[in-house]
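Please check this today:
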Amino acid sequence: MEQLNIVNLFQAGTITVGVLGGLLLWRTNEFRGVSFVLWLIAFASLINIFEETGLTRDVYLVSPIFIMLFGPANYLAIKLIVNKTLKPYEWAHLLPVIPFLMFTHHVQAIIALGTLWRLAYALLSVLILLKFKRLLDEQRSDSDEYSLNWLVGIVLLTSAFTLIDLIRLNTQHMISYELNLLGQGLNTLIWLVAIMVMIYMLSKQRRLPQHPIKAEATSKLTQRHLPDEKSEYTSVFSELDKLLTTNQWFLTPRLTLNQVSELTGLQSRDISRAINLCAETSFNDYINRYRVEHVCQSLVRQPNQSILDVAVKAGFSSKASFNKVFKQVTGKTPSEYKMNMSV
């Protein structure tokens, strides 16, 4: 039996964090896919320790197959978060991994194929999250709080390091033991940090709204601008805009497309389409631009007010979201804007 090294200690930490994090997230149904991934990572780390110390390496080599398994497992976990359920046939994404269990002795080939497989699923996962954000933008004024953009960052970051680590894995017979150990340790540490961030962010994530399936049809329609279609929605937009500004409904916290439909008596699809065509923006941006204008006007009238208090009264439910939207609309941070007012 070979001695444990620093990488094995990182792997032991990954096992602990993965198991405990999985248990913590399991209580939320849509996070159970993430729990499964965390337990899979923990199990893979345990297998790595067993193989690297010689306990199971001579029995059967299993660890290369995890590289192929993580891609579809992550993809299904993200689909469960977004859709809140998985169709039975979607589990078939895991099936192609099974035949490769018989060929794990071809380590380099499995690693290369598995990395490409994993990167392909990472791309699919990012596309799902970006699509989810676009659909939320069509329905909610607080979509940033549910968009999971941070998860996109984690997927892209870990995918980049997976690709870099592929170079190490395929050249480990050419590099020194110390350099190989350093690369393995760095990759393991990055994954350990990534799963800790993911556990923390998901544990404080507000419960996601139901997947906006109905909005998808509207969103697809926005990509096809038929001749004179904009003019057909001009009257709808004018009525919407007048009602919204006169009654200041945009000040309603967490305002949704369905709520505006109920308030105005207009169809949700017509509202969304009118905003897309006439304002050339999403429902989220349309509402939040009015909120930012309201904040600016309030600060002019009463410059001694707290910016955050004004933002809350304007309908913003998150300081981070307010700061982001304010910078997008005015080109300045709220503090910079207020400072320039006094100059």
The longest helix spans residues 107-137. Residues 115 and 163 are 7 Å apart (CA to CA).
